[in-house]
């Protein structure tokens, strides 16, 4: 049985990817608060997130066995009354620059710079690819 997940892309809508073929090479979360470690949040900061006054951010990078890769960015605002997601997801050819791609997709989605840069640091080196 395959291990399928749905990912939302910017121009192709929802796409299923097989995690047996697409490996997660970086997955970073954070927020507008300038930290990427939720364990560092104060109770007051959690209250702001739950009130929908601060968005949470996530960037995930998947690499296909043939070298292609997918960058998905998600920015979420939610509270008891409303929920809003902003997604950007793009497929890239194997010969494209993964670092530049993460920075572009993250910026297009409004992801904070510290989350983008932490994701870049999680990317595998060229030798590991």
Helix content: 10-25%
Spatial order of strands in the largest sheet? 3-4-5-6
Radius of gyration: 15 Å
Shape: globular
What does this structure look like?
The protein has 3 helices and 6 strands. The chain is an alpha+beta fold and 129 residues long. It has one domain. A hairpin with a 3-residue loop joins strand 1 and strand 2. Helix 2 packs antiparallel against helix 3. The longest helix is centred in the C-terminal third of the chain and has 12 residues.
Q: Which SSEs are present, and which pair or pack?
A:
Layout lengths: L3 E6 L3 E6 L3 E10 L11 H8 L5 E9 L4 E10 L4 E10 L5 H12 L3 H10 L7
Keywords, separated by commas or semicolons:
129 residues, alpha+beta, four-stranded antiparallel beta sheet, two-stranded antiparallel sheet, 3 helices, 23% helix
Describe the structure concisely for a colleague.
With 129 residues, the chain is α+β, with helices and mostly antiparallel strands.
């Amino acid at each position: 049985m395959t291990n399928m997940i749905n990912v939302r892309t910017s121009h192709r809508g929802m796409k299923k990817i097989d995690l047996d073929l697409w490996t997660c090479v970086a997955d970073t979360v954070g927020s507008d608060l300038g930290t990427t470690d939720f364990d560092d949040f104060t109770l007051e900061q959690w209250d702001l997130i739950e009130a929908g006054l601060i968005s949470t951010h996530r960037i995930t990078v998947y690499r296909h066995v043939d070298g292609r890769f997918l960058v998905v960015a998600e920015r979420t605002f939610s509270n008891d009354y409303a929920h809003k997601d902003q997604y950007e997801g793009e497929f890239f050819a194997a010969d494209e620059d993964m670092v530049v791609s993460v920075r572009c997709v993250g910026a297009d989605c409004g992801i904070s710079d510290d989350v983008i840069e932490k994701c870049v640091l999680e990317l595998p080196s060229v030798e590991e690819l």
